[in-house]
Design a protein that fits this description.
The protein has 284 residues and is α+β, with helices and mostly antiparallel strands. It has helices at residues 9-35, 56-76, 105-109, 197-225, 263-267, 272-282; strands at residues 45-51, 79-87, 93-101, 114-121, 130-141, 156-161, 177-182, 187-191, 239-244, 250-253, 259-260. Strands 2-3-1-5-4-9-10-11 form an 8-stranded mixed sheet, sandwiched between helices. Strands 6-7-8 form a 3-stranded antiparallel sheet, with helices on one face. 32% of the residues are buried.
Length: 284
């Protein structure tokens, strides 16, 4: 007699399905660990989001992306801290820098680096016209203390100023915010998240170290293969992913071809389908 027809057969089948699902998840986790084998993949990540041309539209899109990554990080169990946030004049943000902390944070979120394109009916347009907005996501590995990145004091210009924006009621009374300019490269790092000027400077220096390390790697890659850097304009034709909300609802990753119709879920942080596909593509 078929075992599934015996008493308790349905329970047995349910248990088998549950075990298969657990096994599948375990195999997927092993596969991802294999894909996350880069030198810096285990590290924490530093993420910066910059809106493109378009004023309030792109600034609002940049804020939507920040929310998406905050939701994704929460689901992954990662810790996120806002290092610096410059709010937009009417809505959205002019730029934001985050640190994402947790095992393999950089290995995962590096897949999001690039230009992201949004098509929607603008909530800021009284005529309800369709608008296209762009924002760039930059991702750097947080550099460990034992990584040697030379930063000379004479190459730095350090300015202090009063913090602004949400949460700045206390720090506005003193010049606790810090802006560090690395003169040889022109890299500017600002931090106003902490109440202490000393803490803000320490965080800004950590971000600067990561940026300089990333820059040195890219320069080495150019010397090795002679290719031009992949820095692109935050505009049409350079996007890695398109988020279309009008006239239809679809998100498509242009690198992997992966599409998702559940736009709301993606904007609420369900982006693992795109990250996993990108990681698998990189090892092919």
């Amino acid at each position: 007699m078929d075992i599934l027809q015996e008493e308790g057969g349905e329970v047995f089948l349910k248990d088998i399905r549950a075990e298969l699902l657990t096994l599948k998840e375990f195999i997927n986790s092993i596969e991802l660990r294999h894909l996350l084998s880069g030198e810096m993949d285990r590290n924490n990540a530093i993420v910066s989001i910059h809106p493109g041309a378009g004023g309030i539209e792109s600034q609002d899109w940049a804020q939507m992306l920040m929310r998406m990554y905050l939701k994704w990080a929460e689901k992954k169990g990662f810790k996120v801290e806002i290092v610096d946030l410059q709010p937009g004049e009417e809505a959205g943000l002019k730029n934001v820098t985050l640190t994402v902390s947790g095992p393999y944070a950089y290995g995962y979120i590096k897949a999001e680096a690039g230009v992201h394109r949004l098509v929607r009916i603008s909530p800021f347009d009284a005529n309800k016209r369709r608008h296209t907005s762009f924002s760039a996501v930059l991702v750097y590995p947080e550099v460990e203390e034992d990584i040697n990145v030379e930063i000379k004091e004479e190459d730095l210009r350090i300015d202090t100023y009063r913090a602004s924006g949400a949460g700045g009621q206390h720090v506005n009374k003193t010049s606790s915010a810090v802006r560090i300019t690395h003169i040889p490269t022109g890299i500017v790092i600002a931090c106003q998240n902490e109440r202490s000027q000393h803490k803000n400077k320490a965080i800004a220096m950590k971000v600067l170290k990561a940026r300089l390390y990333d820059l040195s790697l890219k320069e080495h890659e150019k010397r090795m293969d002679g290719v031009v850097g992949d820095k692109k304009d935050i505009a049409w034709g350079s996007q890695i992913r398109s988020y279309t909300l009008q006239p239809y609802r679809l998100i498509k990753d242009h690198r992997t071809g992966i599409e998702a119709g559940n736009v709301d879920a993606v904007l609420n942080g369900d982006i693992n389908i795109f990250i996993n596909a990108f990681l698998k593509l990189k090892v092919q």
